User: Which sequence fits this backbone?
């Protein structure tokens, strides 16, 4: 499933959970030899909320929060009959988040996530700096100023002209710079208008992705802090859709957008001559084809396999 192009492999772990999750995420997320995704998300039971979410990046590292993944989880649990609630409490490593489902008929069309309050205290982001704003970092591309924000996960927001920035090169350097002890997601943001930001995202552990819900929130927070944008803002992604970001009561941030189901599959393990073969039978659905005023679905079927000694 994907939210604004930010795609993850979602595994229903309500009854059981695969082993060696970091290795599994790394293997399945590979876009050349695996299924291909920005990472892997587990949907699990929770003792303190309706459901629990764990998210692993494409490099196998575990993430603390992902707004787009949370929205997709909301769609999944409702449409798969795991809940009939339209307001869902979701446990994440960064705390419990509230999901509000919006419908087009009986299908979940959009999901709003209450992302909570931004964290600007350097020690809690965490970032090695006396303040969160205008942190200057020396890179091979020259000195770069960024604003650090935590939305449950650390972000560094760089305001720039997108046409002039090397997203991969500078993104890698900033993600792993010693100023961020836990690494960071890096947002490159161009102000198109006070209520509109253009953004490209370099996510820690995954590289450049087509969208990032928590990153869109961080970009708006940084824009407000530095006087560049309004408190209610649209953040179009250069390569995909957009996130609408607004402020709720007590400076809590809300992010909302549509969700699409890209692949439905079954992960099966069988043993052949002492080697494990993992099969994913993938049925790919596309909902963007329309004719005569009607939506049409078409599907293709593929088989992914991986041998493990």
Assistant:
């Amino acid at each position: 499933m994907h939210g604004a192009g930010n795609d993850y492999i979602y595994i229903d772990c309500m009854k059981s959970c695969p082993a060696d999750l970091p290795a599994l995420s790394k293997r399945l997320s590979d876009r050349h030899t695996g299924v291909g995704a920005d990472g892997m998300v587990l949907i699990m039971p929770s003792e303190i909320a309706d459901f629990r979410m764990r998210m692993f990046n494409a490099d196998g590292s575990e993430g603390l929060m992902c707004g787009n993944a949370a929205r997709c989880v909301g769609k999944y649990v409702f449409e798969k009959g795991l809940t009939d609630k339209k307001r869902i409490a979701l446990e994440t490593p960064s705390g419990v988040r509230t999901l509000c489902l919006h419908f087009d008929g009986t299908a979940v069309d959009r999901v709003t996530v209450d992302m909570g309050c931004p964290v600007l205290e350097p020690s809690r982001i965490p970032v090695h700096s006396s303040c969160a704003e205008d942190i200057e970092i020396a890179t091979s591309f020259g000195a770069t100023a960024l604003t650090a924000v935590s939305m449950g996960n650390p972000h560094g927001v760089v305001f720039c002209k997108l046409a002039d920035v090397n997203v991969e090169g500078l993104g890698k350097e900033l993600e792993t710079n010693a100023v961020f002890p836990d690494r960071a997601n890096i947002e490159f943001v161009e102000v198109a208008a006070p209520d509109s930001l253009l953004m490209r995202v370099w996510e820690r552990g995954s590289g450049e992705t087509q969208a990032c819900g928590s990153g869109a929130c961080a970009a708006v927070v940084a824009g407000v802090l530095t006087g560049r944008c309004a408190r209610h803002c649209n953040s179009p992604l250069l390569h995909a859709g957009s996130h609408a970001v607004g402020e709720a009561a007590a400076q809590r941030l809300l992010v909302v957008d549509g969700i699409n189901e890209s692949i439905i599959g079954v992960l099966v393990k069988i043993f052949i001559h002492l080697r494990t073969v993992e099969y994913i039978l993938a049925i790919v659905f596309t909902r963007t084809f329309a004719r005569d005023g009607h939506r049409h679905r078409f599907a293709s079927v593929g088989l992914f396999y991986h041998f493990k000694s």
